[in-house]
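Morning F.,

Quick status update on the modeling queue. The single chain you submitted on Monday has been processed. Sequence for confirmation:
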Amino acid sequence: MNKEGTGKKILVVDDKEENRRLVRKILTLHGYSIIEVATGELAIEMAESERPDLILMDLRLREGIDGIEATRRLKALPSVAHIPVVAITASVSPEDMQRALDSGCSGFIRKPIDLDEFPGQIAQHTGQR
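Structure tokens below.
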């Protein structure tokens, strides 16, 4: 197994445990270190304390602020604004995609994730390819 993620830390923000579990399983197999949270508020806290290499942000979080607002707040903080945020979402209408870009997301990964493509998508966003 290729360990392209060795040394890279990813913050996964999703309110559904089953989604976080799947992402964790795939990415740990590829050598990434995973931090998981279920709310936008916790995403901001963890980004500031852990300084991940990438943030995977669900746009529709049920509790507290949504992924769009969490991304806006992250991009307003000088200490973490440089960290790429990638929307990982089933909401991929042109309007949703534009809202995500406007908030500061640098890309999109569609749910349900494609198990074969996902590691390569992550490698691109962490500068591994």
